[in-house]
Specification:
Elements: H1 6-21, H2 30-33, H3 41-47, E1 74-80, H4 94-104, E2 108-114, H5 118-128, E3 134-136, H6 145-148, E4 153-154, H7 155-159, E5 168-169, E6 172-173, E7 176-177, E8 180-183, E9 185-189, H8 190-195, H9 205-218, E10 223-225, H10 233-239, H11 245-248, H12 253-257, H13 273-286, H14 299-307, E11 311-316, H15 320-326, E12 334-338, E13 351-354, E14 357-360, H16 366-375
Parallel strand pairs: 1-2, 1-3, 10-11
Antiparallel strand pairs: 3-14, 4-6, 5-6, 7-14, 8-13, 9-11, 9-12
Helix pairs in contact: 9-13, 14-15
Length: about 375
């Protein structure tokens, strides 16, 4: 099987696991409990299909792995935020991918660098220019994608390759997601919830705050809701996605409607909308249901804490579930639930879409660009 087909298969597997974690059932499964908040490739391409940029001969869709560019001998540098995959004990360490790649391309050396404060540091590195060959594309303006990254193909070409992508501009794709998942939800410790007497998952903001209070009453040493405030990205980057999927059930709301809505943060009176997403955060802090000192939260440390029951839950995407499971001996206690908002339809929802995307340096050498494309 060609490697370029692997992403579609792995994405499907991730989505199946993510939807199962959200409580899908046989009568509708993921369709009943979630809605796609990040637009699938076929739909999004139609809105950005005009005037594609000129694509180089290095084309993602046309690459034949193990046959093309096998004569290249070089070293490529790859930047990643997944520092956990560089550590001993990772379920699928990065070296596993490198070893598989080197079976096809033994003369291409892959140098991986993990960056903890990825969102900020990579933007600075990008400005400097000499950052390497492959990175997860940080938050750059889409109009600037061609300045930094190699075009990989048109949206029409990529529609047949990927289930999801979001790094495109005017019909040209610059990034390939390394995974997809569910966002706007909550990773929690089932054993803690059950021990505190919570037998049903909260489906409204009021029920959720009541559950956090119940956990604190059960054991005051447990942090009911850990904010990860000091990490920065764990606030807006994890709470904001709930505005589209969970709080509105409208995949276009966050990026297309919110700015054109009068008083978008007003209380709609029905337990939905952005107001209720942020009210959950406000009430949890006001009621003393979060960590005592939010300025000293520890992202790496919190993984073991939720695994061993010191933390009850955190607002994170489904991508975090494997990391929390691997952080201790209680993998079976870690689970995922939708954000505690029920739509007027009576259903809960979650956002589905790609995570970070691999981008290739537009300024590196031609050999390194080809080697990077094979690796991606």
């Amino acid at each position: 099987m060609k490697m370029k087909k692997f992403l579609a298969l792995s994405t499907a597997s991730v989505m199946a696991l993510s939807m199962a974690a959200c409580g899908s059932t046989d009568n509708g499964g993921a369709a009943e409990s979630s809605v796609a908040s990040t637009t699938p490739a076929t739909a999004e391409a139609s809105s950005e299909a005009a005037a594609p940029a000129e694509v180089t001969s290095l084309n993602y869709a046309e690459l034949t792995l193990g046959e093309d560019y096998t004569d290249i001998t070089t070293t490529i540098k790859v930047l990643t935020n997944r520092t956990d995959l560089l550590e001993d004990g990772a379920a699928v360490p990065f070296q596993t991918y490198i070893d598989a790649f080197n079976e096809m391309y033994p003369n291409i050396t892959v140098d991986i660098e993990g960056i903890t404060d990825y969102a900020s540091d990579t933007l600075l590195r990008l400005q400097g220019g000499d950052w390497g060959d492959v990175m997860f594309i940080p938050a750059v303006d889409k109009a600037d994608l061609s300045t930094y990254f190699l075009p990989l193909g048109t949206t029409t070409e990529m529609d047949g390759q990927l289930n999801y992508y979001n790094q495109m501009y005017e019909g040209t794709v610059y990034g390939v997601p390394y995974t997809a998942g569910v966002s706007g939800g909550i990773v929690y410790n089932k054993a803690v919830f059950e021990a505190a007497g919570i037998t049903e998952m909260p489906k409204t903001p009021e029920d959720f705050i009541a559950a956090l209070k119940q956990i604190k009453e059960y054991d005051s040493s447990i942090i009911p809701l850990y904010t990860n405030y000091a990490a920065g990205w764990a606030m807006g980057g994890q709470w904001d996605p709930a505005i589209s999927g969970s709080a509105t059930g409208d995949s276009t709301y966050m990026n297309q409607k919110l700015l054109h809505t009068a008083n978008p943060f007003a209380d709609p009176g029905d337990g939905t909308g952005a107001y209720n997403v942020y009210k959950v955060m406000y009430d949890a802090v006001a009621e003393g249901l979060t960590e005592e000192d939010y300025s000293t939260t520890d992202w790496e440390g919190c993984k073991g804490m939720i695994n061993n029951g010191q933390i009850a839950c955190m607002v994170l995407g489904s991508w975090a579930v494997p990391q929390m499971k691997e952080a201790g001996d209680n993998a079976d206690d870690i689970a995922y639930m939708p954000f505690p908002i029920t739509l007027t339809s009576g259903k809960q929802a979650a956002s589905v879409g790609p995570d970070y995307s691999f981008g290739i340096n537009a300024s590196t050498t031609e050999d390194n660009q080809a080697a990077a494309l094979c690796f991606v």
